[in-house]
Amino acid sequence: MVDLFSELNQQPQSFSELVEAYAGGKPLADLPGDPARGGILLTGMGASYHAAWIGAVHLNNLGVPALAIEATDLLNYASALPRRGGLLVYISQSGTSGEVLPLLERLEPHTCLAAVTNNPESDLARRANVLLPMMAGEEMLIASKTYINTLAILWLLARRLGGGSGEKDIAMLRQAAAGVSRTVEGAMRAAGRLLETLKSQAALTFLGHGPHAATARQAAMEMSEWAKLRTMSAGIGAFRHGFIEAVGPGQGVVVFAPPGRTAESALALARELEAYGVCTLLVENGRLRSLGEELEQPLEVDEFLSPVLDILPIQYYAEVLRRELGFEPGFRYISKVVRRL
Q: Could you tell me the CATH superfamily of domain 4-183?
């Protein structure tokens, strides 16, 4: 079994290499000029869907209408796939998971398919009009390198379709790459603190607004699939509309609250939860803190790149907790590539 820490520690190099590979404008230059007129749909499963969710929120924030739908729901319930002039962004690390071929068979011949994949020889990649490689190298365990590299690709895609500046965008991604290196350097300390603070709590919930709600779901999935911990996630708005009634002492909550338009709302909820006796921690651009604690030299990145940094300490926490609980490394009921629909 590959050691998870080994894969996690490869993320700074993998992310930086991806940024430099995309710095010249390729392969995003192959995207259609105005896909919004035919509809932009992003899809995937698991971590791929969470990245699609963030990408869709980013596009809408830039004034480009877009929708993210899980691939199985797209297969079973959605009949209006993008038509001529539209764009389907299909994200799949392997390009071979169970829903890929059935969905490809339903595409109209003139649908523009952009494939974000780590497997350029897959069925998905071969069908694509535009191939956007993750360039994450070999990954055997949870989505780590493939996840943050996908977030970078979709951030660039959104910026391109939203009228961003190529050179400025690459500079911002390089700043994020420096943040990945810095966050990974401190990730074990953050994971240790998460373990120490949350180990006595009977339940764990991750919360966030908008793109950070997707980070919350990714975090909950990682804790479930790797540390076998029953974990909940919710968007903060949805949480306030009902789920909050279940909280109280003995529960731990991690709130993703990086700087941005919803930061104050996230912080207000964290203060409220603490008043209810909930053990509450904040993650802001990959840095962990408690309420009332000030961060030294806080990292500054575009809000839609915050998910790249915010997931990193949770990845390390999943492995630290797995070892603490004594579970064997690996998956019990699934495999790296899920083929059952």
A: Glucose-6-phosphate isomerase like protein; domain 1 (3.40.50.10490)
